[in-house]
Amino acid sequence: METGYTIAEVSDITGLTAHTLRYYERAGLLSPPGRGSNGHRRYVESDLGMLRILTRLKATGMTIQEMRRYAELCRSGAATFEARRVLLEEHRQQVLDRIAALRGDLELIESKIKFYAEGDTRDLAGP
Amino acid sequence: METGYTIAEVSDITGLTAHTLRYYERAGLLSPPGRGSNGHRRYVESDLGMLRILTRLKATGMTIQEMRRYAELCRSGAATFEARRVLLEEHRQQVLDRIAALRGDLELIESKIKFYAEGDTRDLAGP
DNA sequence: GTCCCCCTTGGAGCGCGCTCGAAGTCAAAT
DNA sequence: ATTTGACTTCGAGCGCGCTCCAAGGGGGAC
């Protein structure tokens, strides 16, 4: 038995398809993993750690480009800790801003819901 | 002077390009507006009202397909008030769920920020 | 041997939501 | 009369993030 995880195992663990995992590698989000004696990819724990944070970044709206930038910093060693922190803090702020914007957008939607709930035929700007 | 707004005026008001406004019409989000004597589109207040809600729906992640469904209900008259309310309430819940998910995703990102801020070289799962 | 299944690569294709370009019409200004 | 400029239609093109396909290899079970 070889050490590490096959692409299928990582797919099961992360919920990403094998196709997507190879795509992430091509896109520079994931450093090319080692290979087993049969030439198949063998992923290790740190790959899983990277995928965990990448999926959170993606879920919060980070683009592939920005994720690549983060991944590049990670590959450049501990000297980039500060740059990574800054990058993540900027992203954090963007997410907070987006949550605030969503709340604002919800207000109009909720006023519309109220309008429909009241069956209010008075004028409230058509649709 | 003809009544209503030209496509350029609506573009200015909404921030959507004229191209996008025509696209929304093609896509069934906006009922075809009236035309001036020169054949140009003349938008009216209710079109602006529709665009206001559409932009909020879009900003909160609704797809064009779903917006078309809403627009179709709007075109079908007051009998669809209840259906529109249900549609908007379902969307509202999805947005609330998404906000909650974003908050959850932020937690991992923030733990990572903390890790980098402390320059903590102890093991905390690699990248 | 010969199934079967998982893996490999390279490259094409897709759905979304625009975005743009070409070619033409019309009205007002010069 | 010509130029300018805003509008019209139709259809193609684009960037993103996958998603899928074809063709092939390697290894275990029977």
Offer a few descriptive terms.
homodimer; DNA-binding; 127 residues; elongated; two-stranded antiparallel ribbon; mainly alpha
Descriptive report:
2 copies of one chain form a homodimer. By secondary structure, chain A is mainly alpha-helical. Chain A is built from 5 helices and 2 strands; from the N terminus they run ααββααα. The model of chain A is unreliable at 123-127 (pLDDT under 50). In chain A, strands 1-2 form a two-stranded antiparallel sheet. In chain A, strand 1 and strand 2 (41-42) form a beta hairpin. In chain A, 64% of the residues lie in helices and 3% in strands. Chain A has helices spanning 7-14, 18-26, 45-59, 64-75, 81-117; strands spanning 34-35, 41-42. Chain A is elongated and about 75 Å long. The termini of chain A are far apart. At the A-B interface, helix 3 and helix 5 of A face helix 3 and helix 5 of B. The first copy, chain A, binds a DNA duplex (30 and 30 nucleotides) through residues 6-8, 17-20, 22-23, 27, 38-41, 58, 63-65.
Helix amount of chain A, in percent? Answer: 55-70%
Number of helices of chain A: 5
Number of strands of chain A: 2
Spatially, the strands of the biggest sheet of chain A line up as 1-2
Oligomer: homodimer
The major sheet of chain A is characterized as: 2 strands, antiparallel
Distance between the termini of chain A: 64 Å
SSE succession of chain A: HHEEHHH
Helix/strand-derived category of chain A reads mainly alpha
Q: What spatial form of chain A do the alpha-carbon principal axes imply?
A: elongated
Overall pLDDT of chain A, averaged?
Answer: 94
Q: Greatest contact pair?
A: A-B, 42 and 42 residues
Radius of gyration of CA atoms of chain A, rounded to a whole number:
22 Å
> Which band does the percent of strand residues of chain A land in?
under 5%
Low-pLDDT regions of chain A? 123-127
